[in-house]
């Protein structure tokens, strides 16, 4: 066991866990923050995507010790109230079906847009092909990414 | 599972049809949160109204992405005349008043169509009656709109919340005339999904998110071979892992109890178990493929026999023959299977993302010996189901573990458990022969099917249509029910065993049989020098709704017109789950790699309830079917599944997803099903396009590297 301190959704957080335990299970089981989802455990599906220092990372493949001193953002902290342009676009286009992968999809898209505010379809494919959706919402996700770009361009107004 | 909860799928539907009683004022066993306006009045089984005018609709069919929360609310709200913005929804516990609580067979809209609108209408009439009594006037002098009852004489108003308590005591009226389609306000409209806001913020709670005070975590080591039993186990190494609390033997393996999921997974891996692997240890899919094909050379149980059957083949001018094959498939929903259970001496609670609440309540009773009123099943959102969650095995395990340890426990399956310890879409082989007449049109079609019966894993215990005459109807659907008016048709079936537990997989028998039949029909058209659309049109004249979607898809796709260089069209049609669907796939093949650029889908599903959700379901079904067509395959060697996670059981990704263009035929026919309607056509449409692109006929799925 080790005491690990990091910043979670803007607030200081201390956990006392096995330092090898993946961040995913620290979030879900230790802290009860279940918005970040378990899908594969091997960084293959993207369902557990969070931001670490603003970069999209797979929480299932990130040991707890690796986030010591870092800023971690989860879906619960992306905006707090669903007002992030990506969340607004997702609501406007009713993207989710079962919705289970969508926390990870949204976090992946938000990190991509922070770096590349106007991605081409090829840019989108390059990032988003690592996010699996078994409901097959890909066409809706692509449309919503373009819509999020517009919303972001309007200063966050839909 | 025992036979008590193993009715056929069609048996389930009968239960729904006959048992769906509009019960009123039944005691509400649910211990749910009360609204700000005090305890809401239960106006009827599906509808509760708070003094604050909040409307709580009970969604007795669970939500796995197919849109039930929204579309069933539309059915209730249409006649209730409530304010859409005031609607909240809730997943109720298991209650016979709802009929069977389960989602499978694309049934929710079809089974809810009349009862839910009727429930809405009865509640509206009770509310209006309560207002009329308050005003001491006749009901006919009240107008109901947007959750408000207006006295037409005085223009006085009462809100639903003001009369809900009184309304709940009124005897429900019968014989109410329901609205006609021209009067619909919500039905047929693309209402926004009610579940979206919670699904973009992480607030939506899935089964795997359930947390109960005092809960521990468990993972289960299951036999590496289907049907294997634990002989003995040594948990020394597992228990040496900090955080592992215990290891307990259950009927199908050993559960490791820990203080978090990750530690439970590690503990399950560290167990040393001696298995009696049983007869399936000798089973390999490489040998079943040959065995199934050999079976199809023999006459089987008759699934269809019209005209002279096979005898007519001898008179044909030209004969076409082919053998088609499909593999076992896993469901791989994004949310791995899981279940939380708490068993106490006089009470059992289960929290689950499930397609079959009624079944879970049943197995809970069998395992615990408790009575139905001592068992509570809490339904949470499902992160996909696709048929896998219509089983109760994952809940039964959790209940067993909970019974053994006495505290609440969450059992989580790893993705490897999900791929390797599942119930599967059966592998199958079909041998076709067709005879053409002198003009090149088909005069006779025979099909000889070898397919393990669905439900072989015990999920349902048999095909949804039963096994009359030795035929498992789910294994032959998609071939035995073809609508083509070919004079001589013969379909035979062999019930083969695959050594693998089988169950329903989104679109069931149509998933493989429509691929087989619509691909072979394309071969028949090519052999006779006929256009694939023209042949279908000519032989489907008795099924005008199928011709309608065929023509619409062909027109919208530009069938027969010029395509970009290297692009080719393929088409397929199907009538399943009460809907009629045609798809045209636009495909190119470069250096053996298949690219599906676009799919045009026309569907006639009768009266639409939510056309936006129908479009979503079609797009979803096409990606689901395309994953199987391009990549999906479960293989078994010496009883062991060789795939384990998304690296070896891959699915379609964003860069491979075609643009899907959906066209819905306007209709006022009774609604058809939708969740499974879009799956069957995609594989044959793509493979028929591949034939035009390359001259190679794909007769075995997945396509994988067959073109390399």
Architecture overview:
- With 158 residues, chain A is α+β, with helices and mostly antiparallel strands.
- Chain A folds into 2 domains: 2-77, Roll (Ubiquitin-like (UB roll)), CATH 3.10.20.30; 85-153, [2Fe-2S]-binding domain (DNA polymerase, domain 1), CATH 1.10.150.
- Chain A is built from 6 helices and 5 strands.
- Chain A has helices spanning 23-30, 75-78, 85-92, 102-115, 121-128, 138-153; strands spanning 2-8, 11-17, 49-52, 55-58, 71-73.
- In chain A, strands 2-1-5-3-4 form a 5-stranded mixed sheet, with helices on both faces.
- In chain A, strand 1 (2-8) and strand 2 (11-17) form a beta hairpin.
- With 708 residues, chain B is α+β, with helices and mostly antiparallel strands.
- Chain B has 3 domains: 3-189, 2-Layer Sandwich (Aldehyde Oxidoreductase, domain 4), CATH 3.30.365; 208-278 and 338-412, Aldehyde Oxidoreductase, domain 4 (2-Layer Sandwich); 296-329 and 423-694, Aldehyde oxidase/xanthine dehydrogenase, molybdopterin binding domain (Aldehyde Oxidoreductase, domain 4, 2-Layer Sandwich).
- Helix content of chain B is 28%, strand content 23%.
- Chain B has 17 helices and 27 strands.
- A 7-stranded mixed sheet of chain B has the order 10-11-8-18-15-16-17.
- In chain B, strand 3 (55-58), helix 2 and strand 4 (87-90) form a beta-alpha-beta unit.
- In chain B, helix 2 (68-80) packs parallel to helix 3 (108-135) and helix 3 (108-135) crosses helix 4 (160-167).
- Residues 1-37 and 456-465 of chain B have low confidence and may be disordered.
- The interface between A and B is large, with 61 and 64 residues.
Reported CATH architecture of the largest domain in chain A: Roll
**Roughly what percent helix of chain A?**
25-40%
Overall structural domain count of chain B: 3
Number of strands of chain A: 5
The termini of chain A sit apart by 46 Å
Strand content of chain B: 15-25%
Would you tell me the structural class of the helices and strands of chain A? alpha+beta
Largest interface: A-B, 61 and 64 residues
- The quaternary state of the protein chains shown equals heterodimer
Rg value of chain A: 15 Å
Q: Which CATH class of the largest domain in chain A is shown?
A: Alpha Beta
Sketch the major β-sheet of chain A.
Answer: 5 strands, mixed
